[in-house]
Amino acid sequence: MKRLLPQLVLILVLLASATAPAAVTVVLKQGVNGYTGASDAYLDEDSPFTNFGNLWYMHLYIRSDDPERSIPLRFDLDGVIPEGSLILNATLSVWLYQLVNMTGGDWVSVGPYRLRDWRNWVETQTTWNYIYTGTYWASPGCENTSWDRYANLDSRLYFYNTSPVNSYYHWNVTPSVQAWFTGAQNHGWLLRCEAHDGGNDGMSFNAKESGSAAYRPYLTIDYEPPVGAERASWSDIKALFR
């Protein structure tokens, strides 16, 4: 029995040994590769009870340091990434097709803010005032940082009057995706104007309803799958006892 002990230990090592798998990249875009889990809309202070969840475009405006139009958007992650995976990086990408009132030295900083766990907004019902029909945001426009959204944004980009249009812009949203994957409720982000140089500034993006998939928002996630046991064949195990 003593002679067999080293072989038994080696068998256990072979059965339990594992190699770190290569990182995997998944891209989630509405209507591409069968994915249908995206939701987006925009909230308009000037039309506080009107839903804009079925349009091909979305607006971001800021007026006198207060957001006037903001964009809630979400990507369903259920079943997309294997349990036990490690989220390495996540990027939100949205296509800009026009700048509004951006002249001279105008600038606007824009970022995605993760929504609170209980803010399960409905794409076809959400408005500046409503999370969904009959239920109000704590502050209009999803602006309450205790109840509607978090106060800290995942990342920010600056837009200028010289910023290229007809182009994708990309925000790092790794903190949000990591939080959702470890148990937080995924209600997406509020993409909003954070600050600007004053006056009225804005921009417009393509929504998931865009006629061409080439311009729809998408979420890219890089993750490391869970480590799997490396299988040892039965012939390899038997050979240890010869």
Strand residue percentage: 35-45%
Low-confidence stretches: 1-18, 229-234
Mean pLDDT: 89
Question: What is the element string, with H for helices and E for strands?
Answer: HEEEEEEEEEEEEHEEEH
The chain-level structural class is mainly beta
Number of helices, counting only DSSP H or I runs of 4 residues or more: 3
- As a whole number of angstroms, the C-alpha radius of gyration is 24 Å
Question: N- to C-terminal separation?
Answer: 15 Å
Walkthrough of the structure:
The protein has 242 residues and is mainly beta. It has two domains: 1-19 and 227-242, no CATH class; 21-226. Helix content is 11%, strand content 39%. Strands 1, 2, 3, 4, 5, 6, 7, 10, 11, 12, 13, 14 and 15 form a 13-stranded antiparallel sheet that branches. It has a two-stranded antiparallel sheet with strand order 8-9. The chain is globular.
Structural topology:
Blueprint (H helix, E strand, L loop, with lengths): L4 H12 L7 E6 L8 E3 L2 E2 L12 E7 L2 E10 L10 E15 L6 E9 L14 E3 L2 E2 L12 E5 L3 E4 L6 E6 L1 H8 L7 E8 L3 E7 L11 E7 L9 H6 L3
Antiparallel strand pairs: 1-15, 2-5, 3-5, 4-5, 4-14, 5-13, 6-12, 6-14, 6-15, 7-10, 7-11, 7-13, 8-9
List keywords for this structure.
242 residues, mainly beta, 13-stranded antiparallel beta sheet, two-stranded antiparallel sheet, 3 helices, 11% helix, 39% strand, disordered N terminus
Concise description?
The chain has 242 residues and is mainly β. Helices cover 11% and strands 39% of the residues.
